[in-house]
């Protein structure tokens, strides 16, 4: 009898430890990894602190850590009044490897789409040229200073690592900017 009771208690205990997998309802956020894998990236910024101010949008280009003199820096030939609380800077898939599509969308204010020219890097161990870039947001600065460039997102080329014979674009923003042969920094100024 003791043996039967011990077996029944063991079965009850094992049943309590059983785990199960359940299906969840799909949320919009569940699609983000899929969109990222297809080349869609979006960064959202709370810009309510400068609502009602005049703003300019900039895109600064750098080659070998030097700013390109003749690249378009100011995206609009004029400033605008910021009327919304949110700014989205995003990247979309492009139809060609040599161009990247981006979008600035300022809530209740404007939406602007354009292209960035990309540069190839030579992948020595594979004996081929490739286009490979990634984007990341900057950590927002504080306090905000008017008439000062505020970097928001960088779009950076990979580089060839001769030691490991791979292309890479990893590390902190400071590390990436030191090594990347080509990158853009997108940001704003307010007045």
Structure notes:
The protein has 191 residues and is α+β, with helices and mostly antiparallel strands. It contains three helices and 14 strands. The longest helix has 16 residues. The model has no long low-confidence stretch (mean pLDDT 88).
Short description, anyone?
It is built from 3 helices and 14 strands. With 191 residues, it is an alpha+beta fold.
Shape: extended
How many angstroms separate the termini?
86 Å
Q: How much helicity do the residues have?
A: 10-25%
- SSE succession: HHEEEEEEEEEEEEEHE
Low-pLDDT runs of 5+ residues are: none
Overall mean confidence score, pLDDT? 88
Largest sheet: 6 strands, antiparallel
User: Radius of gyration, rounded?
Assistant: 25 Å
Which properties best describe this structure?
6-stranded antiparallel sheet; 40% strand; 3 helices; alpha+beta; 4-stranded antiparallel sheet; single chain; 191 residues; 14 strands
How are the secondary structure elements laid out?
Elements: H1 2-17, H2 32-37, E1 41-46, E2 54-63, E3 66-67, E4 80-81, E5 86-92, E6 99-106, E7 110-117, E8 121-123, E9 128-130, E10 133-137, E11 150-157, E12 159-161, E13 166-168, H3 173-179, E14 182-190
């Amino acid at each position: 009898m003791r043996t039967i009771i011990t077996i029944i208690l063991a079965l009850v205990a094992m049943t309590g430890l059983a785990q199960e997998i359940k299906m969840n309802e799909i949320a919009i956020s569940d699609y983000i990894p899929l969109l990222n894998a297809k080349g869609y990236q979006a960064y959202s910024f709370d810009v309510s602190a400068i609502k009602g101010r005049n703003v300019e949008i900039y895109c600064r280009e750098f080659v070998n850590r030097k700013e390109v003199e003749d690249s378009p820096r100011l995206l609009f030939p004029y400033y605008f009044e910021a009327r919304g609380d949110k700014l989205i800077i995003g990247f979309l898939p492009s139809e060609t490897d040599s161009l990247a599509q981006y979008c600035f969308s300022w809530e209740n204010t404007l939406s602007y789409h354009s292209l960035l020219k990309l540069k190839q890097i030579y992948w020595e161990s594979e004996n081929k040229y490739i286009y490979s870039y990634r984007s990341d947001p900057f950590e927002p600065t504080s306090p905000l200073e008017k008439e000062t460039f505020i970097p928001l997102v960088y779009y950076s080329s990979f580089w060839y690592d001769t030691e490991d014979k791979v292309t890479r674009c990893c590390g902190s923003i400071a590390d990436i900017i030191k090594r990347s042969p080509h990158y853009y920094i997108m940001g704003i100024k307010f007045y």
